[in-house]
Amino acid sequence: MTHQRDRIHDHIVDHPGLHFNELTRQLDLAPGQTQYHIKKLIRGEQIVAEQYYGQTHYYPPGFEQWERGSLALFRRETARDILLYLLEHGPTAPATVASKLDLARSTVEWHVDRLSEQDLVEKHRDWHNRVTLVPSRPDDTAILLKEISPALPDRLVDRFMRFVDTLLSE
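The chain above was modelled as a monomer; its predicted structure follows.
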């Protein structure tokens, strides 16, 4: 392998679930250069690529489907914040989560739907049809959360989206 390919591979191993733009930014590489090496790494089965919610994420081999989907969501600050809130506070109504995290209800619903798709959160309904959000696999989720440390640009994009949601909901 070349020096750059080694860097890319090692970075993916250290930061599973990175998406293409994040990887390119963090390693300060040209997109074409990154694409070239990524293709070689995938063909050599040294990394795995998965599409989630409009972005391609990269993982070292060995991560199961649930872990890959979960890590992709953990890279989104809002989804991660919702999940962390539920892990800390237990079953909670969506309106309470929105209020406590200062998020638009529609934003919470969008992220909760993604978290549900990845089997991270369940929506329980009572006999009045009120919804309560419950972490699906709290122990596995807590262990997997330790794998990520989101990049500053991703946090800024998430915060900008929260700001826009706030403006639109007023």
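The first strand starts at residue 18 and ends at 19.
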